[in-house]
Specification:
By secondary structure, the protein is of the alpha/beta class. The chain has 2 domains: about 70 residues, no CATH class; about 80 residues, no CATH class. Helix content is about 40%, strand content about 15%. The chain has 8 helices and 7 strands. Strands 1-4-5-6-7 form a 5-stranded parallel beta sheet. α3 links the parallel β4 and β5. α1 packs parallel to α3 and α5 packs across α6. The protein starts with 11 loop residues before the first strand and ends in an 18-residue tail after the last helix.
C-alpha cells in the first residue's frame, strides 16, 4: 500500500469492520501512534483497521458500535463514512455522531444515479434551476455532511462541484427530508455484512 502511495503519511484511514476494528483499536491505539506509518498499518479481514498519520475513521458504524468503541478506545475516530442521502436520512446516527464530534461522511448520495429521477428531487431541482444531482449534494452539505459523489464523467464532476452558490429553502429541505425510508435510524446499514 505505502509503496504505491505518493504520500508518506495518510491523514485519515477508515476501517469497515466494526467487530474486528473495536478489538484492533483497543489493543493497538496508543502503541501504534509512536511507530512509523508502515508499522501502523494493521490489516483486519482485508480492511485497514487503524489510523495512519494524524487521525482515524470508521465506515458503517451504527450508534451502538460507536458507543462500544468510545467506551474502550483512547484514540477516537474523527469520521464515520456511511450511506447517507435523502432516502437514507439516518437522523439518530447523525445526532449521535455530532454529539461525539465525529463527522458523518455521506457516500452514495445519488444512489448510484437511481435518485436522480425521483419526482420530488426533480421538482426541487426545477424550482432552484439546478440539476437533481446538485440538489442531492446540496442537501447533504446543508445537513453538515462532507459528501463523496462519484462520477466517471468530467463534466458531471464539474457540475457536481457547483453546489456552494445556492441554498435550498426550508420547504425544499423538508420535502427532501420526507423522502427518508429508514425512519431516521441509528443504524449505519440495514444488515451487517461482516457478521
Amino acid at each position: 500500500m505505502f509503496a504505491r502511495s505518493r504520500r508518506s503519511v495518510v491523514n485519515t484511514a477508515l476501517t469497515t469492520s466494526p467487530a474486528a476494528a473495536v478489538a484492533t483499536w483497543i489493543s493497538s491505539a496508543s502503541a501504534k501512534l509512536k511507530r512509523s506509518p508502515a508499522e501502523r498499518a494493521v490489516c483486519t479481514r482485508g480492511a485497514l483497521a487503524f489510523c495512519i498519520g494524524t487521525s482515524g475513521g470508521v465506515s458503517n458504524f451504527s450508534v451502538d458500535e460507536l458507543e462500544k468503541l468510545f467506551a474502550v478506545a483512547t484514540v477516537y475516530p474523527v469520521v464515520d463514512q456511511v450511506k447517507f442521502s435523502v432516502f437514507e436520512y439516518r437522523r439518530r446516527l447523525l445526532d449521535s455522531a455530532e454529539a461525539r464530534n465525529v463527522a458523518l461522511e455521506a457516500y452514495s448520495p445519488l444512489g448510484t444515479g437511481r435518485y436522480l429521477s425521483d419526482e420530488t428531487v426533480r421538482r426541487v431541482a426545477q424550482r432552484n434551476g439546478r440539476t437533481p444531482a446538485q440538489v442531492l449534494l446540496r442537501w447533504c452539505v446543508q445537513h453538515g455532511l462532507p459528501v463523496l459523489a462519484k462520477s466517471t464523467h468530467r463534466e458531471r464532476l464539474a457540475e457536481n462541484a457547483q453546489i456552494f452558490d445556492f441554498t435550498l429553502s426550508q420547504a425544499d429541505m423538508s420535502d427532501l427530508d420526507a423522502l427518508d425510508t429508514t425512519g431516521g435510524t441509528s443504524r449505519a446499514v440495514e444488515a451487517a455484512w461482516w457478521s
